[in-house]
Amino acid sequence: MKGMTVIVKTISSWVKVLIILFGIYIILFGHLTPGGGFAGGVILASSYVMLMLAFGREFVQKDLPLSLDSKLDCLGAVAFAMIAVLGYVFGKSFFDNFLSQFGRHLRLISSGTIPLSNIAIGLKVGASLFLVIFILSTFRRDSSDDKQE
Amino acid sequence: MIGLLPAFVVIPLIAAFILPLFGKKGKDAATILANAVILLLLVLAVVAVYSGKQGIYEIGDWSIPLGINLVLDGLSALMLLAIATVATAAMLFSARYMEQYTAKAKYLSLFLLMVAGMNGVVLSGDIFNLFVFLEIASLASYALVGFGCGHEELEASFKYMVLGSVGSIFILFSVGLVYGHTGTLNMAYISQTIQNNGGLNAGLTFALALFIVGFGLKAALVPFHAWLPDAHPSAPAPISAMLSGILIKTLGVYALSRVVFNIFGVSQATGWLIIVLGLISMIIGAFLAIGQEDLKRLMAYSSISQIGYVVLGIGLGAALIQKGEDKLASLAILGGLFHLVNHAVYKSLLFLNSGSIEMATGTRRLEQMGGLAAKLPYTRATCAVASASIVGIPPFSGFWSKLILIIAAILAGYYWIAAIIVFVSLCTLIMYLKVHRYVFLGQLPEKLQNARENKGTMLFAMAFLACLCILMGLLVIIPGLKEAVLDPAVKVLTGGFEYSRFVIGPGG
Amino acid sequence: MPYALCFLLFMIGLYCAVVKKNMVKIVIGIMVMEYAVNLFLIMLGYQAPVQLTKSEKQLLSTTPIAAGQGPVVSDETGQTEEKLSVPSVAPILSREDLIEDENGQVKISQLFRMTTVDPLPQALVLTAIVISLGSLALMISICIRTYEKYGTFDITEIRRLKG
Description:
The complex is a heterotrimer. Chain A is mainly alpha-helical. Chain A has helices at 6-28, 37-55, 57-63, 66-90, 113-137. Chain A has one domain. Chain A is built from 5 helices and no strands. The longest helix of chain A has 25 residues, at 66-90. Chain B has one domain. In chain B, strands 1-2 form a two-stranded antiparallel sheet. Chain B is globular. Chain C folds into 2 domains: 1-46 and 119-163, Orthogonal Bundle (Helix Hairpins), CATH 1.10.287.3510; 54-72 and 83-116, no CATH class. In chain C, a hairpin with a 5-residue loop joins strand 1 (98-100) and strand 2. In chain C, helix 1 runs antiparallel to helix 2 (23-45) and helix 2 packs antiparallel against helix 5. Chain C starts with a helix and ends in a 5-residue tail after the last helix. At the B-C interface, helix 5 and helix 6 of B face helix 1, helix 2 and helix 5 of C.
């Protein structure tokens, strides 16, 4: 797959920054506005899927190798679980919102662990969704096992 | 102990996501870590049963109608112990067995994910949360069934996945119905609402029917059993042991009995429906098993038949509670639950044996084997123990649970049920005699002269389960043990709506 | 009526999953069932719009579940008296939505209750969607693998295993 025409390549290389920024925005403001880790993660993954369609798989492979992607995937999950465990260590129980006293309501820094969990989920969903789409698209030659969410 | 409840879910979950980070080089380290995690869970489960503590754990410090809670009661503790025991043996076994496959780290990761899901199902006190954990465990098992990526595995996995997904969707649908009718998802509060409304209305009855179908699909009761004889043989042997030994019980029988007894409340109709499902599963499973030529397929059909016993005991209990005969009911449920634990142990042992045989001979066809008794002495010995146990020969564990079931059926006046139990036991005898006759006795074929038994952890795992098979009988003979291990679990089911009072507390 | 249609959709999915011979169509059927259930859950939380007075409409002008002006209540330090200039679009409870009854118990106002949908089924559906995404990916990957092996999606040609 060599990728598409120059027009598509150029536009998508401009737009990818916007999409990634939008994804990050959705993740970071997940506790204030609609959206959150899952939605933002899907947007992040979609930016790379767009690159994959426009430039071909090899290009994306160079940018984000599968091994790194699956590491990010695991990292997101572990980070999410760790936030829960930290709630146990510093607070009263698992998933206890032990940081809730910081920040002010309806500001970016607020809601304690919820934004942190959102970031972890965003990482996990973005990485794993991209992994799934990538592996499904390369199924014919690649024979690595699929992972599920 | 109660403070550690989330550890049952969180520890395997974290480990499952750390394992892939080891990559190809750290295969041994990954194996050791996974084994350590499972052993830790076993220790925790033993402590949970031994301490006898019961209680609820509110996640995130939200009080219960708002937040999600985990509940540890007698039944949960028993199931946790069973899961951890089977998982320990299967994990030890797979340390050697899985060397033949690539991507061992992924296998271990999925294995731990499945254990985490099952522990979650057992502990969860929130019905939607139960569904989520059930899906985690099911998804991991779908992937594990298809792990070999051969023809057979893929087809079996697809069949399993289609039926399993339909079951999950039914469960989700009925969760929605329950929420619509009661306005809460907490199992204790649902139960309380149902009591306050004085029984089930049409919508909730429909939801109960959907639950029975959904969990029946997961438990492979007979009208819904089509996936099991394909899925269980196709998986790698330790996974067959996990699936047959514990997964169908956790996702099917445990969830079904929790929903029927503790949430919706028993009635004559549901009791008899469950009895009939159990009886059909017993008979048809046994008949189909005798005709099989494939070792693992035979065992898979026998699983259907054995799960019938468990369900029969529980259904008999439900019908008897409704009649007001609480003592008999608890006897029947004791038989069912004891058979559940026994079956978890000996069926996983049988599947591990089949894995050992398959590894030595490279085939699962019965007619291609023979005379392996001299080549695989330990496998033969443990297999004999397990077969004796599943058939119900006196000193072994299976005998006691069947005896209890028969006594309960006779005392309740259902002689024909007792007769069927004995009859199916005879069928079981025939099928395991067949296994021994074809596999261990007779002429050794030319091809199998070089068959060698695997030593090390595989042997240890089989010996561990074989010892358990022999010792499990003590659970009912020695007086203290039964009160400590089995009785709390029985009490949870016979207590019925006591569950909601226990969770909500006396004030609620 | 909407429930009946939802059930019809469920049945269409079930029919498709049971009858069709093509693996991909079976997967589609299962997904149709899944979405029928999701739709059902969403409808459970739906609340028919009520007639509002003009002032109430103004209060709720941004979105059906918009908060009014002002910070949320659940603050223990009590230091959040600064009014926000822009009404938040976040689906949270605002101070105006809480009223005290005669016993001094704080309750959610009738207006808020009447004009918001039940958020819990939405959370359930979100979770269910994530789960179905996972199982969809797994199912499709198995379909593709099987196609690689046999060159067909037709289960009557594939199935060598007998139930």
